[in-house]
Each structure stands twice: as structure tokens, then as C-alpha cells.
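Section 3.1: Structural characterization of target chains.
Under the original work plan, the team committed to producing a structural model for every single-chain target entering the pipeline before any wet-lab resources were allocated. The record below documents one such target. The sequence was received from the expression subgroup and is listed exactly as submitted; it comprises 319 residues.
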Amino acid sequence: MLRLGVLGVGHLGKIHLKCIQALRDRVELTAFFDPQMNRAKEAMELTGIMPSHSVDHVLDQVDAVIIAAPTANHFELAIKAARAFKHIFIEKPVCLNINEARALIKMCREADVIAQVGHIERFNPAFIAAAPLIHQPRIIECFRHAPYQERGLDISVIMDLMIHDIDLVMKMSKAGVRKIGAAGYNMKSLNTDVALLRMELDNGCMAHLSANRVSPEPMRLTRVFEKDYYIEMDFLSHQVRKVTPRLNQEALVEFIDVPKSNAIVDELTAFLNTIENGGRVEVSLDEAARALEIATAAEEKCSGSAVIQRDDNFISVMQ
């Protein structure tokens, strides 16, 4: 049975601890660590396991780790895990910057360890149900809004929320990015709290993304326009609609069946499957680095300006 550890047991880390219980026939939660004693104590009460006294103590006991620490710690923890030849599940964004991401990719390849990134919306049941209907998107619209919270303010709304939709756009379009335009505004934190992003892709697809973490109500909605119809995915209610416009008639609206599932359990299952059976990683470091690269470019366009939109050629730094 695979021995699993968790590094960071804050809000998201505790969710991982609970989801691991659903996989206890395949994995054993062996150890966890968090430098904040109150979090470690809560996790101990939740799991019945004594907290480890260091990261190294966790790595000595496990075959794989989940990294759910703050983004600023991702690179250091992941590099340490790779050097110890431990498989890695790391939450998004994969690292703070593209240089860290590139170094991590290199290290994981040299250590021959599996690394998967927690772009959880790939496993959202609404996206899974809609995927067979998405072939050649012409326009993609994404709205990801959330109420204001104290958590996550160490990074911008682009890295916190919008990066989910950047990853989905790249997955759905299957194309590179030719141009981007971005605008941002910081209302409650030192980082961008409201952001708009326009992406022009190599195959002609256009994507318009809106992220907002000072919204009165949550919203996670994506529309994908194909040639003759569009798909609407609600990532909160897990509803999918296929809408086909008709001349001089009401649009034909079909509700797509969405089986119930737990996205975090599903992404951890995919991680375990790759470790045990090999094959393609569901959300690879390369894919996560690509999303990080685009998010970083959007941040740079938003930085230091209140609602300024500029169009420039997007030049990849991953080459």
C-alpha cells in the first residue's frame, strides 16, 4: 500500500486529509507536517496521527507527498521531495514564478518521480460531462468570482482564481497563445483583486476571462462556443447545458447528465493510478508551467495600473 504524507494542513490541506480517507483501501496516510501548531493540532484530532516535527521526518516515512502549503513554499518543498525520490502532488499555482517551475521540471525528470499539479477543475464533474461536446472552440468565456476572504491574499486573483480558467482554456483549445491583453485592479489587498484577460490563440480561438475575489456572490461559469452550438458549464452547481440557436425559433436547450463525484478524490485517484500503472500524468508540470507563464504575463500587464489594457505579442519564456 502506498504511504502518503501531507505538507501543509491549512484550509486545503485539511480537505486533502479528509479525501484521503475515501482512498484508504489504496493509500495509507502516514505523516503530515505544518509549522503552525494550531493547524497541526487540528489535523491530529482529525486523523488520529501525531504531527511530524519536520519536512524531512515526513519524507523519511512516505512514498509520495501532497504539497498544500502556501505558494511561496511550493518550490522549496517540491525540490526537497524530488531529491528524496518521492512522488509529488502539488497544489496550484505550481510555483511562484516560471524559473522555479522550470527548475522543478528538470529536477523531477532527473529524479524520475511522478509530479501532478492540483488544477482541480480538470476533474470537476461539469467539465468531465461537457468535454465530449468540445471539439473546436471559437470563443470561450470564463467567469470566476468569489466573496472577499482573508485567505489567499498573498497572491493575486490571477494566480488564486483565474489560473484555473487559463488551464482550462489551454486544455480545451489545444493551441498556443498568440496575444494577450489584460486589465486589473486591487481593491482590498496589495495584489490584483479584479482582473480581465483576453487571449488570442494560434488557431483563431478567442478567450475572455474574468476573475473577481471581492464579489458579493460566488460564480464559476464557462461558455464554450462551437460552430453550431455552445456549451455552458456551471462549476458550482455542476450543471451543463448545450444551447443550439435556431432561426425564428426558440433555442434548443439540452441539459447534459452530470454524474456526481468528488473532484479532489478523483484527482488523487489519477495521481495514484499514474504512480502504480505509469502512463500520462493528468495535469503535468509542463501544463501547469504553461498556465503559470500566461498568468505571470497577465499579472505584469496589470501591475501598477488601474484598468489599463494593452495588446502585445506573447513570447514564450518556456522555449
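The radius of gyration is 20 Å.
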